[in-house]
Amino acid sequence: MTTQSGARSAGLDPAAARAVLDGPAVDRALTRIAHEILERTGGAEDAVLLGIPTRGAVLGRRLGELISRFEGHAVPVGSLDVTMYRDDLRLKPARPLRRTEIPTGGVDGRLVILVDDVLFSGRTVRAALDALGDLGRPRAIQLAVLVDRGHRQLPIRADYVGKNLPTSMREAVEVHLSETDGRDCVLLGIKAGA
Amino acid sequence: MAKRHLLSTADLTVDDANLILDTAQELASVAGRAIKKLPTLRGRTVVNLFFEDSTRTRISFETAAKRLSADVINFSAKGSSVSKGESLKDTALTLEAMGADAVVVRHWASGGAHRLANAGWIRSSVVNAGDGTHEHPTQALLDAFTLRQRLGSVAGRHVAIVGDVLHSRVARSNVHLLATLGAEVTLVAPPTLLPLGVEHWPCASSYELDPILPKCDAVMMLRVQRERMNQAFFPTEREYSRRYGLQAARMALLPQHAVVMHPGPMNRGLEISAEVADSVRSTVTEQVANGVSVRMAVLYLLLGGAESAIGNDEEGSAR
């Protein structure tokens, strides 16, 4: 599988990149988000975690494991590819699709928690909301992200944030996870060629 | 430069073919949803230009385009200006003037789709839905998809293609695609129904069916194309059926896991017996369902982005 994930991985200048979260910090952030989800939803009884591929899906699985470890019951975990719903499809060559896996039981009447690695313009989340609308009618939809880097272009906010990271538009944020990239960290740097 | 057209499976690299099949895999789930629609091709126009009769291919392309929210215009030669003698060029210019983004074309002439794509008449993408006895690439792609689904993989598998190879665009497309994907193909037909030069194709050939069957992972039965049979290619239909038709007794020669495929429409009792066609090994109805997914994938990859995703990292055959 490729490890590209949109513009974010278009290439950080490695010399100028610095880690804003290291492995243990990523763990702590996810642990806190898992606790916040349990607290806010009163035990996450009817919750479904849907990660947005590639790295959001990995984070969704990790949150699912943490929640079941803390609470003793499993939370359905799936992934939701939003490629077909993006508003920038016509700006680039057609992209390969990622996995969409909706847990058995579906999303109707449930609390869907979308999980992504970086919240930036909000356009991916907008696409995810549209995609969810075609899959069923959740009771409510919440959003969990590891990093919120600001610069929203749509009226969208996250319910659970691992780290708020003020950035400039010239900067790029890359989330690396051990499942996809060999190690856990969040890098902040300047876009190569910017 | 990306390829804007899908004219022949011979143009597809392994990466192209796998990209189409992987995309189709993801799109297959749309068929199981309450809302069987994706917004991806909203505002794009797909024209189904059919100079030959077809039900399943046209309906399949129409369903695929509609599931991607494209506008679909069906244009069949019967009852249109073509029956008044309009040329392919003038028809094409009309479509261009209407602003078609993709033309799905079936033509009775081999090379019809290629002519439409490369003559400079239209700017839209061209998808070959069968041209004469030349190629039918989406059929081969959906066959490969079905094989992958049933057998887990295509590479290393042995596939026999049986029957009227001479007139079969399905056979030609399948030979190229299966060879690209690493399968071993044997064509089985009476000498009169094997095309000239078949020894240069990337496959083996045989006049006998029975010795081939025990090592097959899949048998693809071709339709006896009565409409193209203007000569005596075999003495009688009964003799053909006895030597090259697939009946229950012959199916028993296949390994346990092997599947039986047919591109449809079937001549039950001629190339395939009703018992075989309705058996659990038959993939005929799956092939129809998979056809929609594969055609969605092709339309998405050709039209979904700023440029086609098929053949992106090489010099395309078309401008």
- What is the β-strand count of chain A? 8
Q: What gyration radius of chain B follows from the Cα positions, in whole Å?
A: 19 Å
Instruction: Note the quaternary state here.
Output: heterodimer
Straight-line N-to-C gap of chain B: 8 Å
The main β sheet of chain A shows up as: 5 strands, parallel
Query: How many extended strands of chain B?
Result: 9
Mean pLDDT of chain A: 91
Brief account:
The complex is a heterodimer of chains A (194) and B (319). Chain A is α/β, with parallel strands linked by helices and 194 residues long.
Report on this structure.
Chain A: Residues 19-166 form the Phosphoribosyltransferase domain. The complex is a heterodimer of chains A (194) and B (319). Chain A has a single domain (18-88, 96-190), classed as Rossmann fold (3-Layer(aba) Sandwich), CATH 3.40.50. Helices cover 27% and strands 24% of the residues of chain A. In chain A, helix 2 links the parallel strand 2 and strand 3. The longest helix of chain A is centred in the first third of the chain and has 19 residues, at 23-41. Chain A has a five-stranded parallel sheet, with helices on both faces. Chain A has 194 residues and is of the alpha/beta class. In chain A, 43% of the residues are buried. Chain A is globular, with a radius of gyration of 16 Å. In chain A, helix 1 (23-41) crosses helix 2. Chain A has four helices and eight strands. By secondary structure, chain B is α/β, with parallel strands linked by helices. Chain B has two domains: 9-136 and 288-303, Aspartate/ornithine carbamoyltransferase (Rossmann fold, 3-Layer(aba) Sandwich); 137-283, Aspartate/ornithine carbamoyltransferase (Rossmann fold), CATH 3.40.50. Helix content of chain B is 34%, strand content 14%. Chain B has ten helices and nine strands. In chain B, the strands form two sheets. Chain B has a five-stranded parallel sheet, covered by helices on one side. In chain B, strands 2-1-3-4 form a four-stranded parallel sheet, with helices on both faces. In chain B, strand 3, helix 4 and strand 4 form a beta-alpha-beta unit. Chain B is globular and about 55 Å long. The interface between A and B is medium-sized, with 19 and 25 residues.
